[in-house]
Amino acid sequence: MKKTIILLLLTLFVAGVSAKEKTKVACVGNSVTYGYGIEDREHYSYPVQLQRMLGDDYDVRNFGRSSATLTSRSPMAYTKQPEYRAAMDFKADIVVIHLGLNDTDPRWWPNYSEEFIPEYRALIDSFRVANPKAKIWICLLSPIGHQHHRFQSGTRDWHKQVSDAIRTVAYGVGVGLIDLFTPLYNRPDLLPDALHPNAEGAGILARTVYQNITGDYGGLRMPLTYSDNMVLQRDQPLVISGTANVGDKVEVKLDGSTLRKSEAQADTWGRWRVELPAQKAGGPYTLSIKSSGKRGGFSLKYNNVWVGDVWLCSGQSNMEFMLGNCATAAKDLSEAPHQQRLHLLQMSAIAATDNVEWPKEVLDSVNALKYLTTAGWQTMETADAARMSAVAYHFGKTLAESLEEGVHIGLICNPVGGTPAEAWIDRWTLQWDYPQILYKWLDNDHIQGWVRGRAAKNITQALSAGGELQRHPYEPCYMYEAGIRPLEGTALKGVIWYQGESNAHNTELHELLFPLLEKSWRKAFDKADLPFYFVQLSSLNRPSWPRFRNSQRLLAERLPYTWMAVSTDVGDSLDVHPTRKQQVGQRLALQALRHSYGRDIISQGPTPVEMSRDGGSIVVSFDCATMLRTSDGAPVRSFEVAGSDGLYHAATATVEGKTVRVRSAAVPSPVSVRYGWQPFTRANLVNEAGLPASTFIF
Asked: What class, spelled out in words, does domain 14-214 have in CATH?
């Protein structure tokens, strides 16, 4: 009897010990896994931080080896290292492999890329032999920044090719795939040497691995565009998407509409997506989203939801210019609360880019891509109308008054004063199409000097402390990463854009940048024909502006789904921020009504289409007009002609139907003509709708 009791107690003890066995996690990799460059790596390498996240039920070991390659051709092949043998002996239950960064070396990838996939498969098989029950994840490569000394000589391209091969391995072998690229790609400040993450960056890697291992993505979460009073884009499938814990079932219902509920399941990366049938304009609805799973359920409910048209309103300070400072402010502010069909999602900067030094808390937030904040969608009854974009308000108001009853207009506003075009382009596009602009951007002649000087002033404290990787809204890519990436995938009707002042000093570079910006955003919003309506720079006493305005005109003619609104007649000779914004918003709306809504209206001023010489005169023919006149009843102003010597002289211009005859006694044989070619111009040619002609040169 006594022996039986002892054996029973021993069995229970052994069973208890067995029940407490920890799940063994092997972090296999190179110097990024090892924690190279991290101060106190024993406490802050990603495997150590992963251990803290997973808790005491796990045993996480770091088997990283600096300089390790996957290819066996290298003397630093991982399978030749003691860390590999130790990892095999560990017989892990979970294996996380991050190899391939060092294979981008010109000694390896160009010569042995064909061997990469079979060797990776063999490595995976070896861990399965060590523990047939092991769960294995392989990782997409963490980023290599453009500062890397071999970035443009092959590393950029080979990094992508290696990552593509890793995807092939994951799908072919049936192992998990962890994306270590995306979480760090937009945080170059966390890669001090363009390759190895610091402690904070290692924490992001650890969190990413944790989410993949556990499936815990923090429960049901939605993008910042979801809140009460939101507007969903009409007349196209309603795509509702977010994140949830892996395997959670998600139910979406638009209460009050004809739609029934729809369901989805969160995938291995926590993503889920529901596509509801396209809806006509209407509301108000209640959008209900519920999730359920082994970690419990979550529910979200959004009230006063409308199906209408959503417009993104962006750019720099003239788009940011507030309604309360507008020339028509008194009337506008009295009417704004009654614009019941307008909805506003304001994304506001935490600090203005004035000529001041920013404190540390602002610098830290900027680095974390938290430069813009939002309180969610608001109606005009609750919005602070005085602080909203005057151009966006008059654009939206004109649309609402022109469209059929019941169409609500959503305005997403995220402009930031002083931002150059390059700040609004995604990193991938610039790295592949225009990498020169990324390097040492505070000393880079590809960027306007004023922009670099003001940014340096704002981040003085960081620069003084050696923080060369401190970020700023004027930095190439930054505004995309802080202001557009959070909106990616949002269904839009179109974009209105008022920017260029911070690029006007270099017209030729802007001619490269603006098409890249459109390309970048059309990809972000998954709409190849996303329309752009932009404002041509107004009149101001800056010498480069006539040439820049003409360049903008030509861009609008050349680029697909792109139209321009002229604003030279509402400029201010001494102020870069003219206050007559009502006309600007209305002119953008006219272009949208014609080209996005199909209205048969005159939407722009006279457009020069042809020049011919007739004796001592030049005759310019115009489109977008049935008749020409002047805005003030005075003779036509601001035409000039030049002969073969290239010297321009003021000219007399006479309207002849849809043409203008231009001559000058000083130029008996003119060969060229230009109009509105003064920085601040009093040009006065308009069409029958009173819309002004653009600056141009023939």
From this structure: alpha beta
